[in-house]
User: Which sequence fits this backbone?
């Protein structure tokens, strides 16, 4: 199973409102549902990036990373697209919706809200037309970023408001496993052979990002250890204990 990841950006004014605990009316809730979910997504985005950087040396497969999270309107139903266009200006182009502090993208001046016009010589309009599933186009864009040469400059063409910009970024190696947020009431985190997922209820349950990092680190450790166990079988109990130890190390290093 391949887990797609969508990390989105929350405007400061709405973030302050939501964190204040002020009650929302039914009409307000109908238009602010993206924001409450994205509070959770932003927490997970930061932890995911730090964990993938910290675990790069242990991962069976590494990709290029620049520290951005991408979203695209195609992932949403038509009614949701209209709400997102009004509230977050999510449109036809893939949008940078999170830039991790200290990442290559941050150092190159990328900002949340930037729309990606091209990655290298690959134009986004043509790439979307060729996408086998437009609902997963944000993942296609992330694939393009992760396929960039590591430690070599790459050019991104962006649209910021009415301005056209060119930014040069130098990707770094990160663990290939991606984390996705799944909405649900269960306190649950799990992984497969490639990626991992954390439920929104579990994110709310954690008191801080250190606790969340331990959860992500544990599941990421499972991905790493499962790859190793294909050549050297390990008992399930030993595998779980090893995941605890390696996960704690990843969380500490992140």
Assistant:
């Amino acid at each position: 199973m391949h887990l797609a990841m969508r990390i989105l950006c929350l405007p400061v004014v709405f973030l302050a409102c939501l964190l204040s605990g002020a009650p929302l009316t039914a009409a307000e809730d109908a238009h602010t549902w993206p924001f409450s979910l994205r509070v959770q997504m932003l927490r997970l985005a930061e932890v995911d990036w730090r964990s993938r950087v910290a675990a790069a040396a242990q991962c069976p497969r590494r990709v290029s990373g620049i520290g951005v999270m991408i979203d695209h309107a195609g992932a949403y139903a038509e009614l949701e697209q209209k709400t997102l266009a009004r509230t977050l200006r999510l449109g036809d182009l893939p949008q940078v919706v999170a830039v991790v502090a200290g990442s290559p993208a941050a150092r190159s001046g990328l900002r949340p809200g930037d729309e990606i016009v091209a990655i290298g010589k690959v134009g986004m309009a043509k790439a979307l037309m060729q996408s086998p599933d437009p609902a997963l186009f944000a993942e296609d864009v992330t694939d393009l970023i992760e396929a960039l040469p590591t430690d070599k400059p790459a050019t991104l063409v962006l649209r910021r408001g009415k301005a056209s910009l060119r930014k040069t970024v130098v990707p770094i190696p990160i663990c290939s496993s991606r984390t996705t947020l799944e909405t649900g009431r269960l306190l649950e985190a799990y992984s497969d052979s490639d990626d991992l997922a954390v439920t929104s209820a579990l994110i709310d349950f954690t008191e801080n990002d250190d606790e969340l990092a331990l959860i992500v680190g544990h599941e990421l450790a499972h991905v790493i250890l499962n790859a190793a166990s294909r050549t050297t079988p390990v008992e399930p109990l030993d595998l779980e204990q090893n995941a605890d130890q390696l996960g704690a190390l990843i969380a500490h290093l992140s």
Remarks:
- The chain has two domains: 1-60+177-254, 62-76+88-175.
